[in-house]
Amino acid sequence: MGSWLNDEIPAFAVVGRVNAGKTATLATLLEIDDDELLRISATPGETTNVLPLPVRYDGEELMRFLDTPGFQQPVEAMREIQKLADTGVPGPAEILRFTRECRQRFPDEVRLLEPLMEGAGVIYVVDPCKPLRDSFLAEIEILRWTGRPRLALLNPQGEPNPELEREWRDRLGTAFNLVRTFDAHEARFDERRRLLEALLQIEEHHATHIRRVIAAMENEMDERREEAAEAILDFLEKSLTLRVSEAIDVRDRSVPSRGEKKRADLEVRYFKKLADLEQACLRRLLTTYRHHLLKPEVDPERHSGLNLSMAETWRKWGLNRGQLTAAGAAAGGAAGAVIDFGVGGHSFFMGAAIGAVVGGSAAFFKGGALPELRFKGISLGKVQSDGQALEAGPPDNPNFPWILLDSMLLRHRGIIARAHGRRDKAELDLSGEESLVRTFPGPRRALLQKWFASCLKGSPDRGKEPEVFGELVKSLEEAEVASQV
User: In this model, does residue 113 exceed pLDDT 90?
Assistant: First the structure.
């Protein structure tokens, strides 16, 4: 056994023309968007040596991919291999001789083929937007002669051309065990899993290891979803309980301009702290899904992350007025029920009815308003000034927590939709995104509304947190499935 492989671990060499997308395919498959670990460049010949890339779970290597140099002289190499076969049909023996005898003339082809001769399978990446020229036909023949398990991936780099793609599929189908489409710049979790399932079909010898990789991938995605739900739960609690205060004195209260300035300064501080909480949550999500190039940029002056200053945000995100009314009624009804219980039911349960009406009405009339911070005076005892302070937060709008939740659900969906093979730096763009919380079932909205209400009062209901966490996990999964339809 050679230096590239371990007989107990399945290995696949990713092969293709320079810049056909083989390194991008590996980056997406292995979730590496860091150029320090796996460089993707438009420079021809960027990959000049074989780069082993192990797939590890829980510290154990279960599979290995090999990033190989691209073909440089495929037609000449094919002819040389044919000469080695004399009048016969070339096969693995001739390919082995070629790697031993022709390194000087064909260094890239030899480096590419050596791992195959040691037992690696083949993942051949091509761009079906390009014409099927003689050089590609030579590559296909050489790989067929290796006799190794072979999977061809169509990785489009430009505008789709159905006629060219049919030609590629027909030709590849005669030389490869399987032909599949895999867009390295758009592929999501399901496409990555299907690629591994395709490898399972062509490499039966290592089927157990490949199945373990697929199962580990699925378990990891479940764990990430739970980590994301935990991050969002933490963000919501901290945001809804956020308060900012500043001491005021007699002059602040007696001179209107001073009081207004205090309020304005408090508002800036409040939204800056809210933006900080948002960024912290986004960083946790990006870390969970191994993204380095996406940026959680938030401008606290406009709070551009959530665009809370824009009326459009309050129209298209969060619950609609009818849903807010129903959710508010549920929360109001729950509060009223406490009164009924306290008097032993002698109120004939009128408290629940009144609470539902009041809660629902408040939600309906305030649900479409722009955010205005709550300001109130609080006592500081004798700590400073004359013992009084002004406190700000949160916005006086029942849709505020739903918009916070919507923003994170939509961002989560954008994060998991971004393939690691992309190298463009970008911010998470929510323009054009529509509400996800409006699709929630009624019981989920009612549960969340009650928990939101407890947070807004400054006393998060710990008893409801496990249920809220479970519903957030379901919400993230539903958003993932919907985005793949």
Answer: yes
